[in-house]
Amino acid sequence: MGLSLASTSRDAVRTETLRTMQQVAHLRVELPPTTPRKKKHRSSPPATVELPQLEAQHYDTPAAVRLFAHLWPRSRAPTLRAWGSYLALEIRLAAQRRRIRAAYPLEASRAGWDSWAPVRAALARIADADALHVSHVNAAMYGAMRWRPSDGLEEDWPSWNDVQTTYTALRSNLLQAEMRRAMFGLPAPLRPQQSAPDESNAQLLPSALRPMPAHVMPTHTTYTLLLTLATRQGDFAGMLDVLHDLTSTELDAAERAQRWQMAELRGQDAMAREAARLEQEEEEGEREKMQPSLADFDAIFRGFAKHALPSRFDVETSSWVPNEEAAAAAAPHQQAWTMSAFLELLDLFLDCSPRAAYAANERAEAGASHAPSAPLWRAHAERHRVHRSSSTTAAAPPPKALFFLLTAMRRVSGDDAKWVLQQWQDVEDKFTAHDEGWRAWRPNIYTRNALELLQRRAEA
User: Fold this and answer.
1) How many CB atoms are located within 10 Å of the residue 64 CB?
2) Which entry of 62, 148, 222, 420 is 20 to 30 Å from 212 by CA?
3) Using an 8 Å Cβ cutoff, are 385 and 239 in contact?
């Protein structure tokens, strides 16, 4: 349009905007081919349909604006991916509003700004359209912590407690559906009643989502997300709770719970058929549990790299004890990130198989829902899934994950060169053993430089 806002008045901007809207009179609608395309070089170009009735001289500015307002909402169909993009945009805008509020606190307080209110309104709108999916809740939880101020003093922004409350509601939906299925056929007085979680302080979600709709249940991406957020916060107990939930959940638990909910809507006959089907599936074999993926272990080791309490090896007791100076200066939450906890989790990491690291969890994710994740969280959750894997082979941890694993070893051991090199050798032996199915072992230059430094110190 070539407008300069510095030299254009408000009326001129409004006039130019209306002129742009009037260009709707020259619309050309592109339609897809009538037959599916088999090969790109043989496909016909998109058909173009002229709209001769929409001529500029027949529409003045107000009529063109009304026509645009009428056509625009119908130009795109609302899909789960579109709702996810819409929510991601609202979250980013909320982060910008938070920055403005921090820069001008007095003006924002007078205006009654609530930085997160549009995000809650977006979630309520998605729920009203009956399009709410767990990926939208995942995106809201991740965005709340990703853009949360470092001091955490803003009252209008969701807190870590709000995220934990939301996760508890998601987990409660899954447990209640499993409980109703297990108690099917018992008299009503014998059925245990599970109380709904307290969501009165949930700044994260609108009132329409408190309590959480019963069909929204956690997937493996949800567990990975909560592990990541818990380790960022330094919440060791919260991280262990999520890890326990993950490893105690069956692969197809969410899918079975959703099937049971649909049977409950259809009536007693459908519930009886579904119960018989589930009993038959259980007789065929033991159900497989979820296993931590490489992304989950990466989140855990990043937590140790950031919050671990340095230790030293006590020769007299032949055990690792906290470093006295580091323990005196450590924050309270760091007391749980100890060497003993790290060694237990490292052993669990070294026991993982290619199938457990990728294939089984991908099947659980696909079984829970076919809907895409919101863009804001999808790229973060899938950063370890760039290599397609089969049931027997998988890519080793990516370079950045290896760097944070090495950093966690150095921090938790007080940078003990010999011990770190010994543990690193165990990790390298595991992920370079091609007979186990691992491939693509690629430490980056930062990891290699750190290893060379440790090697020189160990030899000195």
Assistant:
1) 21
2) 148
3) no
d(CA 200, CA 388): 42
Coil, helix or strand at residue 10: helix
Query: Is-contact 232 303, C-beta < 8 A?
Result: yes
CA dist 298 and 280 (Å) reads 37
What is the residue whose two structure tokens read 């309590």? 211
At 102 the pLDDT is 77
Q: How far apart are CA 22 and CA 55, in angstroms?
A: 10
Helices 220-233 and 360-368 meet at what angle, rounded to 10? 110
This prediction has a pTM of 0.73
Q: What is the pLDDT of residues 299-353, one digit of tens each?
A: 999 999 999 999 998 888 888 888 888 888 888 888 899 999 999 999 999 998 8
Buried residues in 253-272 as b, exposed as e (16+ CB within 10 A): bbbbbbbbbebbeeeeeebe
Please give the span between the terminal C-alpha atoms of the chain, in angstroms, as a whole number. 69
Amino acid code (one letter) for 300: I
Distance between CA 378 and CA 373 in Å, rounded? 5
Q: Virtual CA dihedral for 100, 102, 106, 108, nearest 10 degrees?
A: 40
Which of 253, 246, 264 has its CA nearest to residue 356?
Answer: 246
* Digit-coded pLDDT (tens) for 204-228: 888 878 788 888 889 889 999 999 9
* Strand, coil or helix: 7: coil
Cβ(405)–Cβ(413) under 8 Å? no
Cα–Cα distance, 274 to 277 (Å, whole number): 5
Placement of tokens 């693509």 in the chain: 440
Residue 121 near residue 204 (C-beta atoms within 8 A): no
